[in-house]
Specification:
Layout lengths: L4 H29 L19 E5 L14 E5 H14 L20 H6 L2
Length: 118
């Protein structure tokens, strides 16, 4: 039996609302525990720019939110995006890997073959 579109829209809206509430909770906690500095690039954030500072889950599990903040680190939008891209594209980066290790993904490794049509 197919759900009605209104029911699906309500479920999606409720799931998003719950996610936002959960995120607000751990974000506020993280901002109380840690200084407003990106742990990768070292940029400091205050005022309106504070919204550019995000909470990164070290083990990539957004439901793992210990009250001591041991699974969190504050990252700026750019470093946070870079961390997730490295994890998704590299395929070998483990959540507990060295955060300062360079990504090894090589997007153009087989470009020559692609251009030849192989």
């Amino acid at each position: 039996m197919q759900k009605k579109p209104d029911t699906e829209n309500k479920l999606i809206a409720e799931a998003r609302k719950q996610r936002e509430l959960r995120e607000q909770g751990y974000r506020e906690q993280a901002l109380k525990l840690y200084p407003p500095v990106c742990s990768r690039c070292g940029r400091e954030f205050s005022g309106k720019k504070l919204r550019e500072l995000t909470v990164h889950h070290r083990n990539h599990n957004h439901d793992d939110n210990p009250p001591d903040g041991s699974n969190w680190e504050l990252l700026c939008l750019y470093c946070h995006d870079n961390e997730h891209q490295k994890y998704l594209l590299d395929g070998t980066a483990a959540p507990d890997s060295d955060p300062d290790a360079p990504a090894t993904y090589q997007p153009f490794a087989n470009l020559k073959d692609l251009l030849k049509g192989k």
